[in-house]
Design goal:
The complex is a heterodimer of chains A (224) and B (138). With 224 residues, chain A is mainly α. In chain A, 74% of the residues lie in helices and 0% in strands. Helix content of chain B is 62%, strand content 3%. Chain B is built from four helices and two strands; from the N terminus they run E-E-H-H-H-H. Classes of the chains: A mainly alpha (224), B mainly alpha (138). Chains A and B meet through helix 1, helix 2, helix 4 and helix 7 of A and helix 1, helix 2 and helix 3 of B.
C-alpha cells in the first residue's frame, strides 16, 4: 500500500477498502457516524422499544375487552366527542412541534419559543381532557377496579397519558435550555430526541383513538 | 469531499451518509418554504384520515361488518403519514438503518398483539363455560 493511502481520512479509497473488509479506520470515511446520527438512531431504537411495550398493553386490552364482569362496556362509557377533541389537540401539537424544529433549524429564538409554547399548551389541554374523562369514569363507578376490561383500559390510556406528562416536563426544560444556552449543538441533539418522542406519542395515540375508542364503540354484533 | 463514496453501501447503510430520523440532514436542508409545505401536507392528510375514521363509525356506506377492519386500515394509513411527514422516515438509502429498525419493531408488535389474541382465543375455546365451572367447584 502506498504511503499516501495511509493518511487516514484523507484518501476516500482507504476508508472504503477498510470498511469493505470490516476493519474501519475509526475516523474519516468508513469511521463512526457523526454524533447527531448516533444520538438520533439510539433514541429511535428506544422509541421502538417503547412502542413494543405499548403493544403488550394493547394486546392485554384486546384480550380483556369483553371481560366486563357485568359492568359497563366500552359502548356505554366512551364519549367520542371528547376523544375527537383530544385527537385534534395532539395532532395540532405534533404539527407545531414540527414547526419548532424548523424554527430551530433557522436559529430563531422567538419562533422556537412560540412553537414550543403552543405545543405545550395543546399537550396540556389534552391532559386536562383525559383527566376529566378518567375522573368522570371513576365517579360513575367505572374505575380501574371495576372489571378486567377497565383495568386494561386505564393501564393502556393512562400509560400514554403518563408519557405525555413526561413529554410536557421535557418540553419545559427544552424551552429553558434554548432560552438560557442558545442553539448549542448538544441542546439541538436533545431537541431532536424530544421531537421524535413527541411525534411517536401522537402515533401511539392514533392507535388508541382508532382501536380503543372507535372500534370499542361499534355495536357489539359488528365486532370480531 | 469526493463523490466516490456516494454509491457505496455497507450492511444496508449508506456509509458516511446515514440520516437520523426526525429531521432532514443539517447540511442539505431544503428551502424553509418547502419544509413547511411538507408539514402542512402531513397535517392535512392526517386530519383527513382522522375525520374518515370518525365517519367510518357511523356511516352505512361502508359494509357494516367491515367497519372494524376499515378503522384498522385507516389507523395504519395515518401512522404511515405521521412516519413519512413528521418523522421523515423514507425509503432512501440514507434511511435504511431507521427503516430496518422500524421493520423489526413492527414485527415484534404484530407478534405480541396477534399472538396474544390467537393464544387467548384458543384458551377460551378450551375452557369450560364459566357456569359449568362454578357448578363443578360448588
Amino acid at each position: 500500500m502506498s504511503t499516501s493511502a495511509l493518511r487516514l481520512g484523507q484518501d476516500p479509497s482507504f476508508g472504503r477498502a477498510a470498511s469493505a473488509h470490516g476493519a474501519a479506520s475509526g475516523h474519516g470515511p468508513g469511521g463512526p457516524a457523526p454524533k447527531r446520527i448516533v444520538v438520533g438512531y439510539g433514541f429511535w431504537i428506544f422509541l421502538l422499544s417503547d412502542v413494543v411495550m405499548f403493544s403488550a398493553l394493547f394486546a392485554a386490552y384486546a384480550v380483556l375487552f369483553k371481560s366486563t364482569a357485568g359492568g359497563p362496556s366500552a359502548r356505554d362509557l366512551f364519549d367520542l366527542r371528547n376523544t375527537a377533541t383530544e385527537t385534534a389537540c395532539l395532532l395540532a401539537s405534533s404539527f407545531t412541534c414540527g414547526m419548532a424544529s424548523l424554527a430551530v433549524g433557522q436559529r430563531s429564538q422567538k419562533w422556537t419559543q412560540i412553537a414550543l409554547l403552543v405545543t405545550g399548551l395543546l399537550g396540556f389541554v389534552f391532559l386536562v381532557l383525559e383527566f376529566r374523562e378518567f375522573s368522570g369514569l371513576v365517579g360513575r363507578g367505572a374505575g380501574p377496579g371495576r372489571s378486567a376490561f377497565l383495568s386494561s383500559f386505564f393501564t393502556l390510556v393512562g400509560c400514554h397519558g403518563a408519557h405525555v406528562c413526561a413529554g410536557l416536563l421535557w418540553l419545559g426544560t427544552m424551552m429553558a435550555q434554548f432560552y438560557a444556552k442558545g442553539f448549542r449543538i448538544d441542546i439541538r441533539h436533545r431537541f431532536l430526541c424530544f421531537s421524535l418522542f413527541w411525534h411517536a406519542l401522537d402515533i401511539i395515540w392514533v392507535a388508541i383513538f382508532s382501536l380503543v375508542y372507535l372500534v370499542g364503540t361499534l355495536p357489539p354484533e359488528l365486532l370480531p | 469531499m469526493s463523490n466516490e463514496l456516494e454509491f457505496e453501501y455497507d450492511a444496508g447503510s449508506y456509509v458516511g451518509r446515514d440520516r437520523t430520523p426526525g429531521e432532514p440532514s443539517e447540511e442539505e436542508r431544503p428551502p424553509l418554504r418547502q419544509e413547511v409545505r411538507g408539514y402542512l401536507l402531513g397535517l392535512a392528510l392526517a386530519t383527513l384520515l382522522t375525520i374518515a375514521s370518525f365517519w367510518a363509525v357511523e356511516t352505512h356506506l361502508i359494509y357494516r361488518p367491515g367497519a372494524a377492519v376499515a378503522l384498522l386500515v385507516l389507523a395504519v394509513a395515518q401512522m404511515g403519514i405521521h412516519l413519512i411527514f413528521f418523522l421523515h422516515i423514507t425509503t432512501d438509502p440514507d434511511n435504511a438503518n431507521n427503516v430496518l429498525a422500524l421493520a423489526f419493531g413492527v414485527l415484534i408488535v404484530c407478534l405480541v398483539v396477534f399472538g396474544s389474541l390467537w393464544v387467548m382465543s384458543h384458551l377460551n375455546h378450551g375452557m369450560l363455560p364459566m357456569q359449568q365451572l362454578m357448578q363443578m367447584q360448588s
